[in-house]
């Protein structure tokens, strides 16, 4: 199979640079474009040199449509408003759009759904194999335990993360809610302060920790009187997310236009 051309949006970000390094190391793919916002200092520079290394033969651009037109996939870890714009452009180019952006709201998902009528969109709150296995286990444990078991999700990330709860925590919350056969939005409790009263039965609680350079830690706690079950995932290397995104971009080449997630990619 011919090498798959991939465009990376948000090329200067930590995930953008990690993705570019992983693409360069993977013989099944090649870097077809690097996108940054208009006015960014990297525009017009070779992305490899801008990252402090050797030239990669790809100039950073702010013309996403032109870059997408010559690629088979787009990997996007940016911001919700940018992501929905990229989704429309990727659909025009019929490029697979892999979305790792967090903080997406219902209106953003609606726009992704519209774009997915014309192109493959693979969107997940977390691209790692371990986290997706954790989500599946969370759903199964939630289904197995009755309502006497409280569910709490605790997540920790680096100090620069701007959204809470994390996309991964929400993904785990949705898995727990699915196991219980309920809607997460009707049962979510995010953060507590002051005199909150007793915990409401059936609620799914979230707590967020921010500090230092924590890559990502997630605990799903099932707590009953006299015992607890804790499911945990700890990420120590951001490259796991980049490798998962590349796996999704390659997998998406043989799929029909629709919305998918990493459970689909991993066959879970």
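Q: What amino acid sequence fits the structure above?
A:
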């Amino acid at each position: 199979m011919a090498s798959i051309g991939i465009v990376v949006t948000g090329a200067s970000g930590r995930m953008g640079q990690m993705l570019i390094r992983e693409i360069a190391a993977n013989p099944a793919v090649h870097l077809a474009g690097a996108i940054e916002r208009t006015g960014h200092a990297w525009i017009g520079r070779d992305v490899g040199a801008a990252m402090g290394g050797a030239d990669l033969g790809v100039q950073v651009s702010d013309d996403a449509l032109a870059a997408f037109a010559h690629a088979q996939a787009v990997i996007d870890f940016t911001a919700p408003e940018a992501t929905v714009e990229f989704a429309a452009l990727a659909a025009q180019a019929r490029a697979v759009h892999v979305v790792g952006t967090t903080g997406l709201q219902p209106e953003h998902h609606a726009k992704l759904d519209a774009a997915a009528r014309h192109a493959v969109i693979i969107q997940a709150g977390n691209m790692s194999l371990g986290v997706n296995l954790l989500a599946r286990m969370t759903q199964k444990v939630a289904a197995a335990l009755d309502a006497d078991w409280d569910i709490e999700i605790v997540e920790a990330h680096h100090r620069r993360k701007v959204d809470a709860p994390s996309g991964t925590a929400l993904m785990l919350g949705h898995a727990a809610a699915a196991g219980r056969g309920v809607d997460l939005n009707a049962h979510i409790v995010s953060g507590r302060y002051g005199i909150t009263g007793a915990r409401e039965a059936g609620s799914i609680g979230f707590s967020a920790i921010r500090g230092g350079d924590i890559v990502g830690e997630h605990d799903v706690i099932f707590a009953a009187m006299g015992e607890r079950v804790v499911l945990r995932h700890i990420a120590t290397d951001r490259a796991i997310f980049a490798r998962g995104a590349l796996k999704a971009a390659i997998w998406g080449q043989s799929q029909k236009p629709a919305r998918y997630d990493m459970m689909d990619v991993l066959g879970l």
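Q: And what stands out in the fold?
A: The chain has a mean pLDDT of 96.
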